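Repro:
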Amino acid sequence: EKLQQLFIELILQQEQDEYQREGITWQHIDYFNNQIIVGLVEQQHKGIISILDEACLTVGNVTDTVCLESMNTKLAQHPHYTSRKFNPSDKSMDFQKHFRIRHYAGDVTYSIDGFLEKNKDLLFQDFKRLMYNSTNPVLKEMWPDGQLSITEVTKRPLTAATLFKNSIVALVDKLACKEPYYVRCIKPNEMKSPVLFDDARCEHQVAYLGLLENVMVRRAGFAYRQLYARFLQRYKMTCEYTWPNHLMSSDREAVEAIITQHGFHDDVAYGHTKLFVRTPRSLFTLEQERAALIPILVLFLQKVWRGALARLRCRRMRAIYTIMGCYKRYKVKAHFWEVERRFANVRTMADYGRSVQWPTPPAALASFHRITNSLHRRWWARQIVKNIPPSDMLEVRAKVAALTSLSGERKDWGVGRAWERDYLSNVRDCPQTSSGFVRVSKELKNKDGYGQVVFSGFCRKVNRFNKSTDRALLITDQFVYKLEPKKQFKVLKRVPLDLFTGLSVTSGVDQMAVLHTSSHDDVLMCLQPGELCPNQDRVGELVGVLVDHFSRIRNSPFHVKVCCSALQLQMRGRPKSVTVETKPGQTITDFKKSRNGFILLLPAN
């Protein structure tokens, strides 16, 4: 009866009440409410269970017959209760023994015999406590109520009927808070036969289960109902007026817009708070359209989210670069401040800051550091040059030109000594021949009109017959002269300086040099030291004065090549190769003809 009452409340009564509450036009359907039968059994002070409990608690000789008489007295006016006393002609019941209840499923006759005995719970707390204190763990687990002490339990135990009623009430309360789905089973016959169908029996079951009323309510009602907010949240993407958010005054108007767009006017009803859909077909149509739009919305959400992540990463990267930029600017400023602190007094230093240690620059200032360092070196050189007398500037320029041209490939090139340039007119270097050379040079100057002597000195030269002879070399700003020192510096050959294009020297300590010409008739020679300093190197001086003259006066390049092995040249258009060898017993430096050209023989010491 309690489960049937729950079914009536959930399926029939609540549904019709919901229609009335929502203001839906509804024709009420009558159904049997078994609350009167439930009250007959469990009503306080008047129900059958209350009468049984009262009889069990009464002191004295109370029998089942006395209990039945009490029920007849208190339930005489109840339409669903009867006994032989109220219906003497019904011989299916005995006097003082049977009573009948008209249940929703049919009439049931009960025998009062043994009711009181079965209703009494003679299992007192002492016995439960005894079982709980057993050493057997199984018995102890079976009697958990025995853990209560004698001072905690003073009431009589509840009767069996009351315990059963409380259990049923708890079950119904638990089911009422759920959303039940009913499966009604119809018993086709009493014989349990698979091929026998008892129409009367089935109709009776359909009637007392309330299936007819349930079907009538379902057919007359609506298959789906939902709050406007939840319906809108689920199906708003199917309407252009509600996606993504509507601008209407209420959710109901937005739901009406969805229904109007899909043409479901005749299949829905609008309640105060809910939308009611009559047939599942309309709902299936909405679900299909929603399922088709979900992938599109997912892609849209993914796009938006990816864009948000990209913008977040972009903001983070911008923040990182901003921090990096600020830090780099700080490092740059700190480097500038440190450089300024270290080089604040370089103008007053004796070495103009050459001994000052440069701070380590940050990576961003590596190129700037090199440029600044170069500028400081140039400024330092400028300060040094400013202190050089004007008479020595020509020598300084020549040495700088030699340093640049040789690029450190020649070990000794005479940088540590004074460069005289015109050694043939120097009395200390050539005391016996200087006066004669001065006279000849004046005559040549008057005759050819050259401006100054670039270089002069004795040399060992290979002539056109491939033989080595002693000659005097005079290089002016206009011509190159080959002189015969043994015949009072007679001019043997004069070549314009413009014909010379470059110079080749070795990386060793020898004094060999090759002057290259544009006519492919190069000059091979070996410079000879004078009496001023027999071991001084004059090749570097020759390189410096020629490169400085061509770059500063003629504004044209003069190529210098430093060879580690053999020198390559051309004599009268024929290629030649010159190597350097040390020969034991050789007293002077001299050339020797070889298969591919010449060999410069050096003394062993």
